[in-house]
Amino acid sequence: MAITYTYLYTNTPFSANALNLRFNNFLGEGTGLNAVSLDELSLGAFRHNLVPRLIHTAEASTDILVAKAAITDPQAGYFSARRDRAFSSPTMTVGEIMEVDYKTYPVQLGMNSTENVGAVLVLANIDVDRMTFTDKDGDVYLPNEHFNYASAWIRVYDSSGNDIDLDHTRRTLSPRVTIKSPGYGATVQPFTPLSGDSNTNQDISIRTVITQNDLGDLLDVAKVCLVVDAAHPTRVQDIRYGKGNMTAIPLHTDVS
Amino acid sequence: MAWKYPRHDIRSGFVADIDAINDNFLAVVDETSGSLNEHNFDSSKTVLKRQQLAKDGAFSIHVTKSNADPSNFSTKTGWQEIQKVDDWQSFDADGATLNFIGRGSMVYVCASFQLIATDGLQSVRRESTLLTDQMGFGFAVALRVDGTLIFDSLLGSGDSSSEFYRGFKNRGGDVEPTNRDGICIPQGGGGVSGARLPVTVDAVLNLPPGPHKIEIAVMNIRANMQSSGSDDKTYIASRELFALEMLR
């Protein structure tokens, strides 16, 4: 019991001393309400607005967590990013194609710091529009299903600017243009004229939970990036990437 | 305070009553001793932290993952083999099977992984393996929880009982193409297919307390997928599987 109250029974002598005793138990120096500790409080009665939130950082208020980004900010929100390109204008950009930057609120993982973040949940998608590659003779070819591929993975930066690639998030996608008659097979055909099913139009989707074990020597998580690549061991590939989105949410959770 | 204090306003000239005095004290004593609710705290400023609560008090996430490199065709280190069998298969390996003790709650379960159905080579003419090149019926992918496939998580179908199976040149049969033009005809069906294919499946489930086993489950529909003419297996490379318990 946080406070011991001596019940006043019927027919109890009713005097100033009797009242003062109860006031003293209740509000006296070092007793009662003046000495309630957290351990004495029963937390089981707390309701949804009091229990820990799934999305949580100590420094960022609720208003910040749910704030809409400014129109000039390419980020859709504090924990999300998007690649807002028209279907008609994919690009051959490679490298860090999207990023969620926690800016002044980098988070330490492990629930031991003030942020109380156990992990970061990442959900990333990027549309691969089309692949082509240049063979040794310099001609541009349609891709081969077994030979060519696009790749993507998640990269994490800390507040000192150091980074680490998360190998378990590495994904590759084949061109999937096998239905197009002239372009398939080992003896691929020159990439002209464009006809038939020559585009890929498929997503690379990555889901991962970043934990302390993934960070190596990194101090914290300051920025999460989706990296795309067109590299190939023996050929020069050109890969067009279209729309994309990425969410990186600091989770206020135990990790096992 | 959750309730206005004092509950009974005892003013000059009132008859002092024992019950009123008890009520005034007990309203506060009871609340501080366990009957707290949202009225007691300013939720816009203070939120309880996860570590102030018991293990079953709030959120808990369980994760398993594998770095198996999807470009390592030479050694296939860490890759899991999908047999050329028309049935559901799962894999007892990091990143593909997750065991945890649940505390009874809604659970967000998600798997993200790399499917591979190729030898990664272009150097040989592939007419000898036309069926492989056709990348035919594909895979069905799902989550398996405690031995039961979760229909909500199913990606791809290819079930000939519910999907029209077109077959080679619309003849309805599983006929291997005999020439180059043949591989341009899709086998049909609803499986996910590709030489290299990143896949994500997820579901939100209501799991009872106790031990749970969550697995990535893959079906090689009609045993139609293989990596090459000399390798009838397909593979899972880099992968991750996690379950977020949302406890209350």
**Order of H and E elements of chain A:** HHEEEEEEEEEE
| Major interchain interface with per-chain residue totals | A-B, 77 and 79 residues
- Average pLDDT figure of chain B: 80
List the total number of helices of chain A.
Answer: 2
Cα radius of gyration of chain A in angstroms: 29 Å
* Radius of gyration from the alpha-carbon trace of chain B, in angstroms: 29 Å
Find the structural class of chain B using helix and strand composition: mainly beta
- The name of the CATH topology of the largest domain in chain B is Jelly Rolls
Low-confidence stretches of chain A: 180-195
* Unreliable segments of 5+ consecutive residues of chain B: 123-128
The CA-CA distance between the termini of chain A, in Å, is: 34 Å
- What is the CATH architecture term of the largest domain in chain B? Sandwich
N-to-C series of helices and strands of chain B: HEEEEHEEEE
Please state the oligomeric state of the protein chains shown.
Answer: heterodimer
The count of strands of chain A amounts to: 10
Helix percent of chain A reads under 10%
Shape of chain B: rod-shaped
Strand content of chain A: 25-35%
